[in-house]
Amino acid sequence: MLGVLKVATADQIQRLASPHLTYRHTLKKTAALRKEARTASHRGVAIDPDREPEEMGGMPKSAGRSGASHPMAVNETVIALIRPKPDLDLVAGEPAEAVAAAQAAVDAPKGIGTITSYATEVALPVKGTWKNPAIGSARADVVVIAPDDDVPLLFIEVDNCTEEAVLIAAKFDKHARFFKRKEKDTDGIEICERRNDSETQFLVRLARS
What's the farthest any 2 CA atoms get from each other in the chain? Predict the structure, then answer.
C-alpha cells in the first residue's frame, strides 16, 4: 500500500486497509487512546508485495523538507475516491452512533476502484523515456485506471494552494503535449506512446484513417 501512497500515516493506512476500525474503539476514554487502538496493527506496513514498484509511480518530491504536506493531500484524495466501506459485522457492539456512522458509509455511493487501481507521482514524458523523461514533462500526482467503474484513465493534479495560477495552468499544456506524443507501432500505424513496463498497462490506438 505504501508503494502507492509513498508516505502515509498509520491512520490513513488503517482507513484504507481496515475501514471498520474507524468506527470501533469508540468507548475508549480519550481520542488519543481511540487512535492508538485503531492504528496499532498498521504501523509496521511498509510494502505492497503484490505489485512491482514501477507499477505504483515514483517518489514524492521534497517530502522530507516540506513535512510531506503534499503527499498527505494526495493520500486523502485517493482515500476520498476509493471510499473504503467498513464491514458492519466488525462494528457490532459499538455505540449506536458509531454503528449509524458506519452504516451511512456503507450506504453512500461506491467509490472508484481499489488501491491497485492507483499510482502516484507518475512521470508523463513529452520526450525521452518513461524512466528518464525529458525536462518539461508532466508529472501526474495521481493516475487512476478503473475500467470496471467506467474510468479507463484519469490524471489528477492535487494542489495545496502553494503554487501560482500560472504554474498550475502550465501543467495543462504539459499534459496536452504528452497526449500528442506519437510513435509508430510494429505495423507502421501511429499510436500513443506504448508503456514498455507495466506501470499503467494501457495502450490507446489512434483511429485509422
Answer: 69
**Distance, CA of 204 to chain centre:** 22
Rounded to two decimals, the pTM is: 0.69
Distance between CA atoms of 37 and 20, rounded to whole angstroms? 12
Q: What percent of the chain has pLDDT over 90?
A: 26
Residue (of 140, 25, 170) closest to 78 by Cα position: 140
Query: CA-CA distance, 81 to 110, in Å (whole number)?
Result: 9
Report pLDDT digits (tens) over 137-174: 888 999 999 999 999 999 998 988 888 888 888 888 88
Instruction: Judge whether 202 and 145 are in contact, CB under 8 Å.
Output: yes
Residue 121: C-alpha distances to residues 54, 79, 199 (Å): 11, 16, 11
The CA radius of gyration of the chain, in Å to the nearest whole number, is 20
Structure confidence by residue, pLDDT tens digits, 43-65: 555 444 465 655 656 655 555 55
Distance of alpha carbon 12 from alpha carbon 82, whole angstroms: 12
What interhelical angle do 31-39 and 10-17 show, nearest 10?
Answer: 60
Q: Please say whether the beta carbons of 181 and 148 come within 8 A.
A: no
